[in-house]
Every structure is written in C-alpha cells, then in structure tokens.
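so my prof wants the structure for this chain in the tokens format not the other one, which i didnt know existed until like an hour ago. anyway here's the sequence
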Amino acid sequence: MTDDWNPNDPDASNVMYDLSRWSFDQQAELAAELAEAEVPHTWDGSELVVPESHEAAADSTVTRVEARLGIVYEEGDEDPGDSGSHGRSSHEPIDIPAGAASTEYDLAEWAESDRQSITHALTAQQIPYRWEDDLLLVSTAHEEAVESLMDVIEAGEFAMLPSDDTADEDDLPFETLTTFFLAAERLQRNPLDADGLEQLLDALEVAEPERRPYGVDLLLWQKTCELAEGLASALVDADEPDNETAMAVATDLHDLLRPYV
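here's what i got, hopefully its the right format
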C-alpha cells in the first residue's frame, strides 16, 4: 500500500465506485477486504475512492464481495463502477470461452424463480455461464464465487437491490460510525491518546442521536452516541481525566461497534 497517495490532490487520478445502494454492513465488509488486499482507499459519503494505480485490484475486490454477499443490480441500474472515470462491463450474458474449463451443476430441483435469480446474478457479475437443459455450466475459474451466489439463493437471502435510492439525504455518512470505532480502539488502550480523543470529538461534533448514518440501525446509533458522550465526559468534562472510567466506556463502545466495522 502506498503511503503518499493523497485523494484530495487535484492532480491525483482516482477511481470512484458509487456504493450508495449498499448497506452499511456490505460497505464495511468491502472496506475490510480492501484493507486486507492493501488497496489504498477512502470514502466520500457512499462513494469509494481508490487511486487509479490500484483500479484492477479494487475492481476484483468489489466483484468478489458482490459475489460472496449476493449483491446484484436490477436491469437499468448502474453498477458501482459505472460512475466517474471507471467503467465496468455491461450486463450482458457471457458464454464460457471455447476450451475453457467448466463446472456443471444439476439444478433440476431448483424452482424457476431461483434459476432466474442465479442467471441474473451471473450476468450481473459477468461470470461466464451456459444452460444445457437443467445443467448450469460455469467457468471453473469462477467456481468459488458461483457457489457463494448459489448458497445465498438456496438460503432464501437473495434480494435485488432496489432501483430507488433508499438513503435519506439528511443521513450522516456511515464513516461517522467508523470514526467512533477507531477512537474507541485507541482510547481503550490509552485514554490519553491525543489522536483518539481528536477522532472522538470530531465525530461528536457532527453526531446527532436522531440523525443516524446511512444504513445504520437507529437504536445502535443512539447507543453509540450515548457511549461516545460518556467517553468524552470522562476525558474532558472534569479537571482531571477519569482514565479508569474512560477505558471501560471505550471498551464498551469498541465491543458494540466491532461487528459492524
């Protein structure tokens, strides 16, 4: 990962992914995958920003997460890479190339609706496939992604992303929740960590209990704000920081948000 990338540099060549239709949990899953792949990235609201030099790695990571989580787009929707300077392939079926290895799945017992779902998902993910009666043939190179999609469909968890953007324009960016988590992670280890305190206070400055970040459950958000206020109170409201209380509250905040970030 490069340390000198500045996404705010007007001369920087960046790639944008519009993830406004993804839930908070899906965006967090992608962020974790990008970090593991050492792809530099930042967020501008619900848009993922990566340097153009890492476009291929980011593109494959987005596609992999889409496949694993069963994220597909309705016909006519733009996929994440269709905005800005980045272009992804159109939603047209791709046949298995001649000579390429293929894997067969006998889906004779699948309902017609489930067959349509896997067909749509494979098309949306641009995974080569072909139907031969009840047999679904897919490119063996994409076998893992295909089986993830099939698991999602069989579990009844497959859903088309809506064509209407459900995000409220007044919602906070979901990174606000991440900032609270990062602050808690620092302050639970060292309540005098200046960077952690700065992150906490910056997030509190924009946080409102009744104005949740996009995709975040309201009760979770309100509990987050309550703990964050308590943490800040322990550190800055008294003449001397209450380090013991601060560490305990920071740990509670960290543990609350860990499954979501």
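also thought this was worth mentioning. Residues 82-90, 159-167 have pLDDT under 50 and may be disordered.
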